[in-house]
Amino acid sequence: MIQRIVALMEHETAGDPVTGLLWTRKTTENIAAELVSLGIQVSASTVARLLKMIGFSLRVNHKKHSGHTGADRDEQFRYIKAKKDEFARAGLPCLSIDAKKREMVGNFKNPGKTWEKTPVIVNDHDFLTLASGVAIPYGLYDTEANVGTVFVGTSRDTSEFAVDAIEAWWCSEGRSRYPGACHILLIADGGGSNGARLRAWKVYIQEKLCDRHRLTVTVCHYPTGTSKWNPIEHRLFSQISKNWEGVPLRTYETLLNFINTTTTKTGLTVTSHLVRREYETGIKVSDQKIAELSLERHETQPHRNYTLKPR
User: Fold this and answer.
1) How far is residue 39's CA from residue 20's CA, in Å, rounded to a whole number?
2) What's residue 15's pLDDT?
3) Which among 22, 31, 43, 249 would be 20 to 30 A from 267, CA to CA?
4) For the chain, first and last CA: distance in Å?
């Protein structure tokens, strides 16, 4: 029977050349039906057991293949590392920044499992009309101090919201943690509210950080499709997701508490703040405002690396 199964799987099999693990797109029911048509009476469960005997396993898709492998990508990775090392040696702040996935606040399913005596009952549909609000976590991860700060917005993820979060971090934590510092490094993704091409992002940095606080701000953006290498993703956001997995985020207080209690064995600490301000989208930035920026683009990939200085 095993030989029959192997023959049926010949053109439906894929495998790992390193581990030798095999998988198939056929279901056990389909394989059993084909065997029955050949006169072999067998159930789907028996087929599953036999498949495991010959090295097959149920598998899911793994997001590991990158479509962007050009020389400019590697160059930017090296440049970001060099900048991080430079700021660390000088005792200056380096922040990895990004917005986490928007969450609906209410009795909604949260991926993951928890130990319970009975199942947790949640809404059968994830309709926004059933939510008490939305939560937009914008995170800042201090790479040297291993400290995370999350500002949870309740309206929209805009460039002004992003820069307001950075300014609030500087006022509440940054300037006391780095006394005398006048230069900060921001490591960001290439898109989103802190995207490399956004005019408003640069204007708000100029006005709210450089001019208002006399800070010099250097920004380095990761190439498209490489956000998972941004430190905040695996050092902060993934840890928050683990902490609240399987628990419905029914209230803002619940959500903030899970963020505040996120820790790791390496000593991560996190604080959170709720931001009730309404942010507007579609704000236009004139050419004149861009021309007035005190913006210096770097020689290495100037579209991704630049510094803004006080005017």
Assistant:
1) 31
2) 46
3) 249
4) 79
**Same domain (yes/no): 131, 30:** no
Residues 270 and 304 in one domain: yes
Q: CA-to-CA distance for 159 and 157, rounded, in angstroms?
A: 7
Give me the percent of the chain exceeding a pLDDT of 70. Answer: 87
Q: What is the CATH number of the domain that holds 303?
A: 3.30.420
Q: Reduced to 3 states, what is the DSSP secondary structure of residue 96?
A: strand
What is the rounded distance in angstroms from the CA atom of residue 149 to the CA atom of residue 181?
19
* pLDDT on residue 53: 78
Tokens coding 20: 């030798």
Q: Which two tokens stand for residue 42?
A: 């067998």
Cα–Cα distance for residue pair 161/165, rounded to 1 Å: 6
| pLDDT tens digits for range 33-77 | 777 777 778 788 887 887 787 777 766 666 665 555 567 899 999
Tell me which residue range forms the domain holding 250.
71-308
Query: 98 and 238 share a domain?
Result: yes
- Same domain, yes or no: 43 and 125: no
How far is it, in rounded angstroms, from Cα 52 to Cα 5?
12
Residues 6 or more apart in contact with residue 204 via CB below 8 angstroms: 159, 160, 162, 163, 164
β-pairing verdict for 133-142 and 94-99: antiparallel
Find out whether 241 and 119 touch, Cβ atoms under 8 Å: no
Residue ranges in the chain whose pLDDT is less than 70: 1-26, 58-70
pLDDT digits (tens, 9 = 90+) for 3-37: 665 565 554 444 445 445 444 556 777 777 777 77
Residue 190 contacts residue 68 (beta carbons within 8 Å): no
- Total domains in the fold of the chain: 2
Check whether residue 19 and residue 139 sit in a common domain.
no
